[in-house]
Write a structure and sequence with these properties.
This protein is an alpha+beta fold. Helices cover about 35% and strands about 10% of the residues.
């Protein structure tokens, strides 16, 4: 363990200087296993096997960083409303530059400075794909609470924030006194609005039913038919349960240039379904959309065309029913059936 207590005021200022909107500080105590284990036992992790296989590290950060004392949570607001008027079929968080690299770059700058200030300090960081349970740490660090929609909700920016997490083997001079108040009350809007019933209560999300999982992570198989019908102008991620949340009613516009929507965010489903490999290479790398891959993205766009039942999509769908990808071919055959009277 590092000998000195680090001053939170100095770390807070540094977080701001490197571009984060919020920072929280939590004691690196083990997480009670119940919420992760009950989620895994119910099968809500779908095929994201690392959720369970890395459970030990997820629940105890000292497995990741021996001598861990503090977990810092960083948040960046990403809310912007400059998508096309018909609404982009891409979820808000994915419209700008890939947030993983944005938050990672900022954390790298933060780490570089603290390593210079405190030689010998041990750190371990991650953004999203790291094993840390980021919402738990953000809640413990006082950034907000986990709402019924399964998202961390902050007082200042609602749930339109992305998280990064950094473990330190040092204590800091102040930790939050207690948890941030839960403001959901008797509201159930997100539960009512979720088109697939993926919000199962207890703030848990059944990933198998979540359109975010189906459009991003489930990229090698067909989307179950019942869920395809819900992909109305929605091809990458889903914002419905955040959009309806009253605590998101007064969002703060993110001036941050990293979150400015890229050219791909102005495309509609027809253009995205028709994406050529050359256009893909020009538009997608450097954005979070790359995770769905070329065929996954086109598969989703093709489903959305079927759901919209637009006759003008027929020639494209007929062409795609002979596509080189079985995933796209099968989606196109299904979408053509939806166009039948
Ligand atoms: C797996 C995963 C998913 C899955 C499952 C979603 C989920 N809510 O679990 C899928 C693929 C569906 C998904 C979707 C999305 N995701 Co996601 N996802 C993750 C990931 C990798 C792990 C989450 C996890 O462990 N879930 C398992 C459950 C059991 O744990 P949990 O989510 O932490 O929830 C429990 C605890 O928080 C506990 N709890 C609540 N309060 C407290 C307090 C204390 C003290 C303790 C001990 C416990 C506790 O109760 C919860 C229920 O049991 C995280 C990144 C990470 N490494 O943490 C991003 C993350 C949660 N995702 C994120 C985002 C942006 C999204 C989407 C909004 C993207 C989109 N627009 O499509 C959607 C939102 C869907 C939703 N309604 O939650 C952000 C969330 C930011 C925020 N404001 O909350 C994260 C943090 C990534 C990041 N670095 O920013 N995601
Ligand atoms: S992201 Fe969409 S599908 Fe997933 S829980 Fe929220 S509303 Fe339901
Ligand atoms: S919609 Fe209502 S219940 Fe759902 S997270 Fe927001 S305040 Fe909580």
């Amino acid at each position: 363990m590092y000998g000195t207590q680090l001053p939170t005021a100095r770390l807070r200022q540094l977080a701001q200087d490197v571009g984060f909107d919020l920072i929280g500080f939590a004691r690196a105590e083990p997480i009670p296993p119940s919420s992760l284990m009950s989620w895994l036992e119910a099968g809500y992790d779908a095929d994201m096997d690392w959720m369970g296989s890395r459970a030990e590290e997820r629940l105890d950060v000292s497995v990741l960083l021996p001598g861990a004392r503090t977990v810092l949570s960083f948040a960046n607001n990403y809310y912007r409303d400059d998508a096309p008027s018909q609404g982009s079929p891409i979820a808000r968080y994915a419209r700008g530059r890939d947030y993983h690299s944005t938050l990672r770059d900022r954390m790298k700058a933060f780490r570089k400075t603290i390593n210079a200030w405190y030689p010998g300090l041990g750190t371990y960081g991650g953004v999203d794909s790291g094993p840390m349970m980021e919402k738990v740490w953000a809640a413990r660090g006082g950034l907000g609470y986990v709402g019924k929609n399964g998202c961390l909700i902050t007082e200042s920016h609602g749930s339109w924030v992305l998280l990064a997490t950094l473990i330190l083997d040092a204590e800091v001079d102040a930790y939050p006194e207690g948890p941030v108040a839960d403001r959901c009350g008797s509201c159930r809007r997100c539960l009512m609005a979720c088109p697939t019933g993926a919000l199962v209560g207890n703030r848990q999300v059944d990933a198998r039913a979540c359109l975010s999982y189906q459009t991003i992570e489930n990229r090698d198989r067909d989307v179950p038919e019942a869920f395809r019908f819900k992909l109305d102008n929605l091809i990458f991620g889903c914002d419905i349960c955040q959009q309806v949340c009253p605590l998101n009613r007064k969002p703060v516009f993110a001036e941050d240039e990293r979150f400015v929507p890229r050219a791909v965010a102005s495309l509609g489903t027809l253009e995205l379904a028709a994406l050529t490999p050359e256009q893909y290479k020009e538009l997608i790398p450097g954005t979070a959309l790359a995770r769905a891959r070329y065929d996954g993205l086109r598969r989703n766009a093709v489903y959305a065309l079927g759901v919209a039942r637009q006759a003008h999509a027929r020639p494209l769908l007929e062409k795609l029913s002979g596509d080189g990808s079985e995933l796209v071919r099968s989606a196109a055959r299904w979408a053509l059936l939806q166009l039948e009277p």
